[in-house]
Amino acid sequence: MSRTPFTRHWLFAFVAQLAKFGMVGLVGFAVDITVFNLLRATVFSPDAVDSGPIWAKVVSTVLAILANWVGNRYWTFSKDRQSQTVREGLEFFAVSLVGMGIGLACLWVSHYVLGYTSVIADNISSNVIGLLLGAVFRFTLYRYWVFSPTRRARLAGAPAPAPAPATTSTGSLRLPARPERGLVTER
Questions:
Q1: Mean of all residue pLDDT scores within the chain
Q2: pLDDT digits 0-9 by tens, 93-123
């Protein structure tokens, strides 16, 4: 019974963080898709520039990354942001670039390998399939690397939090082999 409140609290916190990430992502998505389609229809039109859709996606994604960093830093992961802003920004940008690469790979395969060259096909491959795959990758690395609470503590010079108590395969708490100093073991 004692594990239930902790599990509920952790689950609620995780879902809340995931929802915030999703809302920030929607803003980034709006920036990305708007800029992508404007550039694809104008300066990076496939008729004017052979690799126009790719360049349009690069520019739109970089702008979306900047919007997402601000939203994630100051809202989604605000409690876990690092004091070293430049380092955090570089790590965020690196993870985001790999996420962008996932979206670009989906667009490239669809557009150049499979031959689906319509505006709709480009949007589905990059802004639906690529975005979903990239979002899973980014959330995981933002949560467990860029904005990791344990990493933030280590970077700030504070001792890392104590590891969670070990459990058995049935989920029950496993006691240490010998009691820690100051604990009463028998009466």
A1: 82
A2: 999 989 989 988 999 999 999 999 998 999 8
Has residue 139 been placed in a domain? yes
- Within 13 Å of residue 65, how many CA atoms lie on the same side as its CB? 23
Nearest-angstrom CA–CA distance, 59 and 159: 41
Cα–Cα distance between 100 and 81 in angstroms, integer? 22
Question: Has residue 162 been placed in a domain?
Answer: no
Number of domains making up the chain: 1
Cα separations (Å) of 71 from 8, 13, 68, 101, 161?
Answer: 26, 18, 5, 21, 27
Distance, CA of 85 to CA of 59 (rounded, Å):
23
pLDDT of residue 163: 52
Residues whose CB falls within 8 Å of the CB of residue 144, separated by 6 or more in sequence, listed in order: none
Does the predicted model carry a pTM greater than 0.70? no
Residue-range definition of the domain harbouring residue 110: 8-152
Whole-number pLDDT of residue 168:
53
Q: Is residue 168 part of a domain?
A: no
